[in-house]
Structure formats: C-alpha cells, structure tokens
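Hello,

I think I submitted the pyridoxal-5'-phosphate job twice by accident. Can you confirm which output corresponds to this input? Input:
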Amino acid sequence: MFQHRDHMGIENGHLTIGGVDAVALAEKFGTPLYVTDESRIRANYRRFKGAFPDADIYYAAKANYNLAILNILALEGAGADVFSDGELFCALKAEISPDKILFNGNSKTDAELEMAVREGIRVSVDSLDELQTLLKIAEVQRTEVEIAFRVNPDVSPKTHPKIATGLKTSKFGIPHAEVISVYKEALALRNIKPVGIHCHIGSQILDVAPFADATRKMMELVDQVNRIGVELKFVDLGGGLGVPYKPGEKAPSPSELADAILPVFEECTKSLGIAPKLILEPGRYIVADSTILLARVNTVKRAYKNFVGIDAGFNLLLRPVMYDAYHNIVIANKADQSPSDTYSVVGPICESGDVLASDRRLPKVEKGDLIAILDVGAYGFSMSSQYNGRPRCAETLVCDGRAKIIRKSESYDDLLRRQVIPSRLK
Ligand SMILES: *Cc1c(COP(=O)(O)O)cnc(C)c1O
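Support: Only one job matched these inputs. Its output is below.
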C-alpha cells in the first residue's frame, strides 16, 4: 500500500504521516484536512536536484502554491515556473529569487506582462502577438526584457489528453516550424533580448521516451537559433515527470529522466561550444506524494453499489473528476485491517460525478471512520473551490513529529467575502 512512500506507515492500526498519527490529526484539527509532510517535499526536491546537479530547478507553482510550501522550496534553492500574476505574487512573497522565475502562459494580460517586466522576471513568450505587447511594455518602462519562446515540439507524451501540452494541436507554444522566424524577429527588437528556449510537453508522464524525443527536437532548435546569433543563457525543458498513483504503477526516477535527456543536451551544447543553463520545471514530482487528504465518513449506503459518503468531494480534490485520476484510499483508523468488501467513495457535492474512488477493496467501512486519500499534494488544494457553498478546509504541515496549520479553514464569512448587495435589494 505504501510503495515508495517511506514517510508513511501504520502504528497501532492507525495511518501515520511524517511519524504523526492521522487519527489524532483529524481529532485535533477537524476534517476535511490536508496534511503535508515537509521532509518528503525536501527529499523529493533533493532527489530531483541530485539527478540534475548542474541544472536549475524551477518548481511549477501551480501544483501547490501554499506559501509555506513555496517557502520550503525557496529554502531548498528552487526557482519557480509561474503561470499567472497571482502565482508570481506568491513566489515573490516566498522570496524565490526573481532571477530564477519564469513567467509562463498562453494568454497573459497586459497587466501580467507589466508586472513581470516591472519585477525583472523573464517571460516565456507564447506568440508573436504577445511579443509585440511585451515590446510596447518594455519600451514604456524603458527597460530590456529577457525572454524565451515557448515552443510546441509536437510530441505525444502518452498521458491523459487534458494534460498533454506539446501536441501540435495544443493551445500552448509556437509551432515548431515557425520558431526560427520568431527568434529572428525578437533579435531585431531593441527592448527584447531572447536568451532562452522553453517547452513543456505535458504532465504525469510515465515513460522517459517522450522527454528524450522532446529534448532531441529542442536541441535541433538550439542549434538553429544559435546559428542565427541568439546567445542562449538557458534551455528549459519543462516539467511533467509522473508519479505512481496506482498500486503497481511504475514511474521513472529523476535519475532515469536524467539518463534520457542529459546526454542529448550535453552532446549538443558541447558540439556547439555553448553552455546554456538547463532548467527543469517539476511540479507534481516534488509535492504529489507529500500530502494526504483526511475526510470523515458521514454515511455508508448499500444501494446498487456500496457508497461511502465522506465530507470531502471534488470541491477539495478535483483530479478524479477532471482527469479520471486514481488515488489510493486508506481507512486511517483501520489501516492494519484486510479488505472485506468493495466500496465507492463519494463526496457530498450535488453532482453524480462527485466520485473520488470507484470500486475499491477496503476493510469494513462504518460511519465515523477516517478516510485518507493519498498523493494529493499536486493539483489538490490548488484546484479547490467553494462549490455548493462549502468553505475550503484547513491545510497542515507536519515536521519533526508535529503538525502546524499552514492555512486556516474557511468560514461561512469566506463564502460571502467580497460580495456586494446592491442597495435596492436591501
Ligand atoms: C504545469 C507545468 C509544469 C509542471 O508540470 P508537472 O507535471 O506538475 O511536473 C511545468 N512547466 C509548465 C510550463 C507547466 O505548465
């Protein structure tokens, strides 16, 4: 059950995370509750960085931009890939070094670009149209902006279609065939300095072959842009390394990823006599398995199936509904008991799609039991909502056997916050 998850265990029949009893956490802080193990984030980061000692690691903030988590990664020396002004704001708040942040996005507002330029953040430009907007902003601010272009390398990452971002039909990036002409255009602009090249082929990728493919395509482009006089300071190959969610599922390790891409990268840069920095942008790999979501069983119903109704739904964990994602389920207060029946774990949201886990073999489940949903650190809380009038739950961080709140649970007031009733309705 806990393959690869050495920060989790069972003590006295209870699930533990970071050495802390999950049942005690739920009693102390209430449910639903996100629980993150700090040491696991640090270990994941160090394992990744260890596989790429010469590269800069720009953590993809969208996976989980809780400030405490960004702080941990800032302390570890990570940079950040940000996809909005809000993520940039959070990354700067966490004191991630501005020269290690890349502002990405396929549809940035002028205000977002102005903020990036004002803060001296490099921009990954997604279209010629955006280049023109950025040029005007740089002229107004009388500054030079360093950019990369986001390239669409046209590779299939063999993942869920909603998270394949490098297919030629994807909304992201500049088509492979137009890349050289956009660099030529940028070279001619006074306030724009092309210094990087960027791609990101998708997420939850469980095979290194697409990464090697993308690297080869990118390095061909590096050769070509180098030839037209672009002095590349960095080559950013994006994120996307998958993690094993399902029992028995295998994911490549960072060092396997390194073996697949570093030789291609190094051979090319050596033969060109250039030394751009390699940048990688892992999100999921760093945080996914660091976190569990604890939820209380409200009701068990025997109908067409056995339904376990819990107090968390897709308002707090969208991945099962959005991507048909699989998350391991553990009955945290019966963690040492053998499965005895088949259950579907469902949330309280008024949508028949609000199913978090289908047809799982679990020990006998009863009202009051505590369900732990594993590996929810990436694209978990960061995709949460208040749908159905449900305030968001708290987040906690476990370190050295102690748990601290890193986000308080919302109240009813938070449901009303910033709403304004026109006076004629009062
Ligand atoms: C989402 C994203 C990432 C991170 O992807 P993971 O699968 O979480 O590693 C990296 N770079 C860009 C540009 C992204 O959009």
